[in-house]
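task queued by scheduler; priority normal; single chain, no ligands, no partner chains; default sampling; output format set to structure tokens
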Amino acid sequence: MSATESLFQSAQRQHLAGDLAAAEALYRQHLAANPDDAAGQHWLGCALHQQGRDAEALPWLQQAVQADSTPAAWWFSLGIVSASLQHYADAVAAFRAALARDAGQYFFWTNLGASEAALGNAEQAEQAWLQALQLKPDMPDAWFLLSAHHAANGEAALAQQCNYRGIVCEGVSKHPPATLAQALAETGQPEAAQALLRQWLVQQPDNAIAQHLLAACGGSDTPARCSDAYVQQAFDQFSASFERKLGELDYQGPAMVAALAAEQGWPQAGWRIADLGCGTGLIGSVLQPHASRLVGVDLSAGMLREAQAKGIYQQLEQAELGSWLATQPERFDLAVCMDTFIYIGELSAVLPAIARSLRPGGQLVFSSELLAGDAAGFHLNSSGRYSHAPAYLAAQLAAAGFARWQSRPVILRQESGVPMRGELYSAWLAA
């Protein structure tokens, strides 16, 4: 064995052991003795890349493929470093050279797609990711890349479906059972979703979230609304991070209410207002300037603690809406239910209760998730939330005694980069 072969093998051992600095030094010694060795050039470039020194790595990787253009993996390494340096056209050329030598490598295709996308070549990017999925349909990366691609093109349904498929591929090691069950249900695997939730219930028989989601995935009868226990458990457990999470989802509730107040000319500090399902007080902060008295109601003690800390409410109540409203006849000028009815499917009890709590001429503002198509009534989705048909809402408002109402389409928030479409309603009692 020659001395140069021994140096190269020592460098490889150090590289595999993760000692990149030692490997780099040995590769350099090897190349000093054998400057045209393509393998040494390639692996030195890789060691430099792994140390975050891509500008230094690039010429070594270029020299390697010039010296020996045969190995597909060497072209792939060149593509990775070129993309890292934002040399996307060079990266595309390198990835295509790698694929010309070995078209059966999943990551060659996904990285080609990413560089094509960076160049604005959307169609070529999509085709590359689809080719990757032909090779390995159970790998999540390409599904998530396709999801972002479809979202950017305004193809919301496709984006959401690809995102769900990526979640299913990642499985329980990456996602809690609630998230995974929804993804399974939305990708045509309701039985798998139900099995996952039943397994959860074996471990935690009284878990209200698992019970509710089992119904949402078709494993038990659909309840008329979320149980009190579900609402309390679901919101207590993440009340401290609730506003951060809504920020990540680009939640539009406060902005929508503020715009409505300006448009309708709500008075300054003149109204008695009920914030029904007040949560942490995000909507209450918008309502407070218009209120002589602001009352917040929620089932979650954790949410109410966060709301209390804002100091904007004169009264906070932990209660179920229907039972609490029954004690408040003709008390309020305005009731607001933003992102509240998504946890109540059947509205035939709560809407009349709200109407009775309003003074003559009083107003209700609420949001709903849109039940698309020709579907009637309400539907419990795999997310655990309810959506309502516009015709159902109109019928329920009329039955509750509201004299007139108006609605507008809105984007409530983003879910996995996909707009969640809904309706914003204003309804008034007769004066």
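post-processing summary
- The mean pLDDT is 96.
- Residues 11 and 26 are 5 Å apart (CA to CA).
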